[in-house]
Specification:
Number of strands: 5
Strand order of the largest sheet: 2-1-3-4-5
Strand content: 5-15%
Distance between the termini: 51 Å
Number of domains: 1
């Protein structure tokens, strides 16, 4: 059976990280809430890497290799907090998925993160930003980069106004694209 439901993914890992979080709470340290994360990528390796990293951090993860299946899942189970997606997908590419999400008000609180290949240049990065990606991650995936990115996510969902404002801001964490835009 496909492990696509947030509620059933990583039960063992969540229990282990929950016991670690309880120990942190006793020491007075603040605890980050569990996020719902969706991964949409045709690469089984990338999906598995993200799934393992995010489960170890105590988050719920649903992985897909088909964009239409992922969108159907979102419509049935509700919006994810973070959405890692590749831009090169069959049937409906990542740019089209980003545009669709931007056009649906109930998905505005979700933070789309584009996964780019090593060879993708500044134009692909800019196109991803314009389509609605709020963050860019380049492959190969690095654990500390993913953990840092996820830990920066606010402990609350953004309002639709905040999400639209972030979506329109091209300077978010993509200094190279923003500096190239300012030069022109």
């Amino acid at each position: 059976m496909r492990e696509a439901c947030y509620a059933h993914c990583g039960d063992r890992d969540r229990r282990q990280s929950a016991s670690g979080r309880e120990a942190e709470q006793e020491g007075g340290t603040s605890v980050q809430r569990q996020l719902r994360v969706m991964v949409l990528d045709t690469s089984p390796t990338s999906r598995k890497i993200l799934e393992v990293i995010l489960h170890r951090e105590g988050h719920q993860v649903a992985c897909f290799d088909d964009s239409l299946e992922a969108l159907h899942f979102l419509s049935r189970h509700g919006s994810a907090d973070l959405f890692f997606l590749s831009l090169e997908l069959p049937r409906m590419d990542g740019f089209d998925v980003l545009k669709y999400l931007r056009g649906e008000p109930h998905f505005h609180s979700m933070v789309p993160i584009a996964l780019l290949g090593e060879r993708d240049g500044i134009l692909v990065r800019l196109k991803a930003r314009l389509a609605g990606a709020q963050q860019i991650v380049r492959k190969p995936l690095v654990q500390r980069q993913i953990v840092a990115l996820v830990s920066e996510y606010p402990c609350r969902r953004a309002s639709p106004q905040e999400a639209n404002q972030r979506r329109g801001d091209l300077t978010c964490d993509d200094g190279e694209a923003a500096s190239n835009l300012r030069k022109d």
